[in-house]
Amino acid sequence: MEEVEVVVAHSRRAALRVGDVFLKVDGDPAHADVEVRAMAMAPVPTPPILWHEPPVLAIAAVLGEALGVLGEPSTASRTAWAAAGAATRRLHEAPLPPWPGPRLEDVAAELDREYAWLLANDVLPAEVIRRNREIAQAALRPWEPVFIHGDLQITHVFVDGDEVTGVIDWSEAAPGDAMYDLAVLTLGHEERLDDLLAGYGAGADRDVIRAWWSLRGLVASRWLIEHGFDPDAPGCEFDVLRSRMREP
User: Fold this and answer.
1) Cα angle vertex 179, ends 145, 241, to 5°?
2) What SS3 class is residue 185?
3) Which domains does the chain have, with CATH numbers?
4) What global pTM score does this model have?
5) Is 126 exposed, middle or buried (0-12, 13-18, 19+ CB in 10 A)?
6) Nearest in space to 95 (alpha carbons), one of 45, 146, 46
7) pLDDT category, 1, cuts 50, 70, 90?
């Protein structure tokens, strides 16, 4: 009998692995609907969908290993990172999904709310929070929407050697800012940005990517704390926010 592995679980969703099958259970059926539609549209490798019976989506495992994990150096080659950059570029050049994406005014409002919460709850030194809020401002500019993954974490990109074999977890896919995907993929692995951009090609704005590192860290921290995760774990959001203090 195959063992059941809990990959992630919180009040909104859970992901289980049974052998080579992943079962994703989500209280909001719209998330799985987006995931199914996005994987069908994406011009990059995605896991095969085995079946979909709300609230459960069953997908097959992909070959290879994740590009890396937070808190540990990525052992993937520079060529593999460049391949991830090239795959991200293909996604960003694809036709836009026909559903709405994040709006600039909503992102700005969320940042203001989370900034105030972080200051009020003393989870980090105030100067760290304020400095990152200053840096994050550069991300709050109009962007030309592209097809983004929306949650392109390092653990969501799989490689086998120097080849991308699959990109998973598409429930946040939407039209959005290309620099956001690049920032999320290098969050906590900022030293790999050059390798990623070598494959992505022209058009990346490093200042905006750095701004998204700060913005992502600020807006994600309360959710992580309230859902039982630790943003202060090595390489995670608090480390990213502290590291910005070393920048001019």
Assistant:
1) 135
2) helix
3) 64-246 (3.90.1200.10)
4) 0.94
5) exposed
6) 146
7) low
